[in-house]
Specification:
This protein is of the alpha/beta class. It has one domain: Rossmann fold (3-Layer(aba) Sandwich). The chain is 45% helix and 15% strand. It is built from ten helices and six strands; from the N terminus they run E-H-E-H-E-H-E-H-E-H-H-E-H-H-H-H. A six-stranded parallel sheet has the order 3-2-4-1-5-6, sandwiched between helices. Helix 1 crosses helix 10. Bound molecules: adenosine-5'-triphosphate and magnesium ion (MG).
C-alpha cells in the first residue's frame, strides 16, 4: 500500500481537492483507495456525503488514530491511502508526514502562496520528512509564465511535481456535486492532468 500525505500549512491551497481526485482516479484504475481525513473541518467527509458511489472510502481520524487506521487499510487490501490534513495543524501534519511514503504540498503559483511555503518546509525539515516531499503546483493559470516562474524558483529548494494542476471550473463543479473531474467531465483537460498526476504518484 502506498501512503500519500497531502499537507500545507496554507489554507485553501487545494489539499482536499487533490486528495479526493487521486482517490477517485485510483478507484477508476481498479485499485482500492482510502482517504483518511485528519481535518476537523472534515471537507473530504462532507464531499463523500454528497456522493452516490460508495468508493473511495473516506474516514475521519485523529492523529493518534492514524497509525492504526493505516494498518487497518493495508490489512483490508487498500492499494493507496491518502491522508488529507488541515491547514495550521503542526502536530497532525508531522504525524501524517512521518507515516507517508510521499508528501505532496499543494501550492498556488502566486507570490503570496510561494512566500508562505517556508512554514510547511520547516515543519517537514524538523520532522526529517523533507526528503519525501514535493510541491504540487495547483490552480495554475492555464496561460502565462507565472507557473513556470514559480516552479523554477521552488525547484531550487524542493522537488516540484512535473505535472501542474490548473485553475479550472471543472474542479469546483465536480467537488460541489460529490464527484471528481473524471466523473464530471471525463474528456476534459482536468481529467487528463489528474490521470497524469496519479500515474506520476504511483511510480514515484
Ligand atoms: N485547480 C483548481 N481549480 C479550481 N478551483 C480549485 C482548484 N483547486 C482548488 N480549488 C478551489 O479552491 C478552494 C479550496 O480548495 P480546497 O478545499 O481543496 O483547499 P484545501 O487546501 O483543502 O483548504 P483547507 O486548507 O481549508 O483544508 C475550493 O473552493 C476548491 O474548489
Ligand atoms: Mg481541505
Amino acid at each position: 500500500m502506498k501512503t500519500v500525505a497531502i499537507l500545507s500549512q496554507k489554507g485553501g491551497s487545494g489539499k482536499t481537492t487533490v486528495a479526493v481526485h487521486l482517490a477517485v482516479c485510483a478507484e477508476l484504475n481498479k485499485k482500492t483507495a482510502a482517504i483518511i481525513d485528519l481535518d476537523p473541518q472534515a471537507s473530504a467527509i462532507e464531499w463523500a456525503s454528497r456522493r452516490e458511489a460508495e468508493t473511495p472510502e473516506v474516514i475521519t481520524a485523529t492523529p493518534e488514530q492514524l497509525p492504526g487506521f493505516l494498518k487497518q487499510a493495508k490489512e483490508n487490501g487498500a492499494d493507496l491511502a491518502i491522508i488529507d490534513t488541515a491547514p495550521h495543524s503542526d502536530r497532525a501534519a508531522i504525524v501524517a508526514a512521518g507515516l507517508a511514503d510521499l508528501i505532496l504540498i499543494p501550492c498556488r503559483p502566486s507570490a503570496f502562496d510561494v512566500a508562505a511555503i517556508g512554514t510547511t518546509l520547516n515543519l517537514l525539515k524538523l520532522s526529517n520528512a523533507i526528503d519525501r516531499a514535493a510541491i504540487l503546483l495547483n490552480a495554475a493559470p492555464p496561460r502565462g509564465i507565472m507557473t513556470e516562474t514559480a516552479a523554477a524558483g521552488l525547484s531550487e529548494i524542493i522537488p516540484v511535481v512535473p505535472i501542474y494542476i490548473h485553475q479550472r471550473a471543472a474542479y469546483s463543479h465536480a467537488i460541489n456535486g460529490g464527484h471528481s473531474v473524471e466523473e464530471y467531465e471525463p474528456n476534459g483537460k482536468a481529467s487528463d492532468e489528474i490521470r497524469a498526476l496519479y500515474k506520476w504518484i504511483m511510480k514515484t
